[in-house]
């Protein structure tokens, strides 16, 4: 590997190993701050050394060992008493492995720790995205539509609360799992979405490492809670969305909208598995939750061999169900997009315009509005909406797509 290839290799290793390193350090030291800072220092050391020394044969082991040394050094520096110094020395010795219990995947176990019921739901999600997903604070802030400083403070307070409340890093018992699963599913959904269409400027348009990891963890939770409808629904939703991934970015790096995608390039095996999960949940007769309805919407889309065959009336009916249990502005916006196919863009535009107060900082709102304005012939307003969407999006593929649609207005 040449020196010029090392930065790309480090980025790839960060995507693959961050959560493993943080999980290992959290288990060992019992402190999220120590784990995160030591992991960050280990990666910083890799940036310094690997261009000269080369990428080690086992990057994950190198990073974990380096991070352990960094954590021990920090504990020693901060030690004010002899017993603290001895504690730091003891931590440097090899430790016997902890019994794994009901959850035997380190990263999944770390998710359940971050999703402790003592934390508010949004805080659980944000903390886990940072500690497990390795997302930056700006990326998480965009996902929550909040200021970067506010999100940083939220994550800092969450780690402080875990430490102050002495919440232990331990394996959740079987009884713990149902109470924590909703927060875990919310985390996985956001991790998957960030991978499917990244928000960070300068990032790859799609991060398959994140989508693959979210699916892998969802499968583990499905095995733990096979009767949970929302677990099955989220897994189905991810599979049906992931099935379209390769058709979503063009050869020139531009986003390809659903109506323009080559449906022959969709992954038939993932679609089949997703449809099977949706059918299984329908057969139970139990009222579906949010993820199950979203999966059903995606099942309708992926059932159509041609976009003209899409059953829009069924999609609107499913959104009507979803609005009743999740009356969020984003759900209302997506319902309006479907309504445009049934009742026309004028009706949909009126519904979307009512959401401006809630979604003014959301790029997809302006992109949706731009398309509807284009369809009703209001080109100047459409151009302005495209400009606003381009300003707000950080994804290079989406920027290219929006710029092309704007320039087509003439």
TrEMBL record:
InterPro entries: DUF6596, RNA_pol_sigma70_r2, RNA_pol_sigma70_r4_t2, RNA_pol_sigma_r2, RNA_pol_sigma_r3/r4-like, TPR-like_helical_dom_sf, WH-like_DNA-bd_sf. GO terms for molecular function: DNA binding; sigma factor activity. One of its GO terms (biological process) is DNA-templated transcription initiation. Keywords: Sigma factor, Transcription, Transcription regulation. Residues 20-80 form the RNA polymerase sigma-70 region domain. Residues 180-280 form the DUF6596 domain. Residues 77-98 are annotated as: Disordered. Residues 111-162 form the RNA polymerase sigma factor 70 region 4 type domain. Belongs to the sigma-70 factor family. ECF subfamily. This is Putative RNA polymerase, sigma-24 subunit, ECF subfamily. It comes from Kribbella flavida (strain DSM 17836 / JCM 10339 / NBRC 14399).
């Amino acid at each position: 590997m040449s020196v010029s290839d090392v930065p790309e290799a480090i980025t790839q290793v960060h995507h693959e190993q961050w959560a493993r390193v943080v999980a290992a350090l959290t288990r060992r030291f019992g402190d999220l701050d120590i784990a995160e800072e030591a992991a960050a220092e280990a990666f910083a050391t890799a940036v310094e050394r690997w261009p000269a020394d080369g990428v080690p044969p086992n990057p994950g082991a190198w990073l974990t060992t380096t991070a352990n040394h960094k954590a021990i050094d920090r504990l020693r520096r901060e030690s004010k008493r002899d017993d603290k110094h001895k504690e730091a020395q003891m931590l440097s010795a090899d430790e016997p492995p902890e019994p794994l219990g009901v959850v035997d995947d380190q990263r999944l176990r770390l998710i359940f720790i971050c999703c402790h019921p003592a934390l508010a739901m949004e805080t659980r999600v944000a903390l886990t995205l940072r500690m497990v997903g390795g997302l930056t604070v700006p990326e998480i802030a965009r996902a929550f539509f909040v200021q970067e400083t506010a999100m940083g403070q939220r994550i800092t307070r969450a780690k402080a609360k875990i430490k102050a409340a002495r919440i232990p890093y331990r394996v959740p018992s079987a009884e713990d799992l149902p109470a924590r699963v909703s927060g875990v599913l919310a985390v996985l959904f956001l991790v998957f979405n960030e991978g499917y269409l990244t928000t960070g400027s300068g990032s790859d348009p799609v991060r398959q490492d994140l989508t693959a990891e979210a699916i892998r963890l969802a499968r583990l939770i499905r095995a733990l809670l096979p009767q949970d409808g929302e677990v099955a629904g989220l897994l189905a939703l991810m599979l049906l969305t992931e099935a379209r991934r390769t058709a979503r970015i063009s050869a020139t790096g531009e986003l390809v909208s659903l109506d323009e995608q080559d449906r022959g390039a969709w992954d038939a095996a993932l679609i089949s598995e997703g449809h099977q999960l949706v059918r299984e949940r329908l057969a139970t007769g139990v009222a579906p939750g949010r993820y199950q309805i979203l999966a059903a919407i995606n099942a309708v889309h992926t059932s159509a061999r041609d976009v003209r065959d899409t059953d829009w009336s069924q999609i609107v009916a499913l959104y009507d169900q979803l609005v009743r249990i999740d009356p969020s502005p984003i759900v209302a916006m997506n319902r309006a997009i479907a309504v445009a196919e049934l009742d026309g863009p004028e009706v949909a535009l009126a519904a979307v315009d009512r959401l401006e107060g809630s979604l003014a900082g959301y790029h997809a709102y302006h992109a949706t509005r731009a398309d509807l304005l284009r369809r009703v012939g209001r080109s100047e307003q459409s151009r302005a909406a495209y400009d606003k969407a381009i300003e707000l999006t950080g994804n290079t593929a989406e920027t290219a797509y929006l710029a092309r649609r704007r320039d087509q207005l003439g």
